[in-house]
Amino acid sequence: MRSQRKSSPKDTETLLRNLLRTGTLQRLPTHPQALDTLLAVATGGLARQRPYAEPEVNEVLSAWLESVRATVDHVTLRRRMVDLGFLKRTRDGSRYYLNFGRVTGVLEDPTVEVEASALIADIVLEREARRNAYGS
Questions:
Q1: Mean pLDDT for the stretch of residues 13-27
Q2: How many domains does the chain have?
């Protein structure tokens, strides 16, 4: 696991605003701390200590990706989550579990739900307001 400073709710919102500044999530970040923070936020729809079949995980991740208008697919997101320890799989690969310890290692307060879709709406409105201000 990577050693890093935990992301505060304000830091997390700032990061998401930067990643979503175009109104979509166009790619996963390459910076390790940014990627970890994004993946930790994306786990928000998964319950602790609950086994998930792959289609269930795919459904939760697809919904989150849709909420941020992502061009990234759920398979890529799920694989990165497994690779970086946010999701654990049973030995036979039939079930997934949220690794909440990994999430708490990244987010300063993992109980604060970050509404990435609300940030997208804010960003789109801000962009339209700037466009209208300069277009008038």
A1: 88
A2: 1
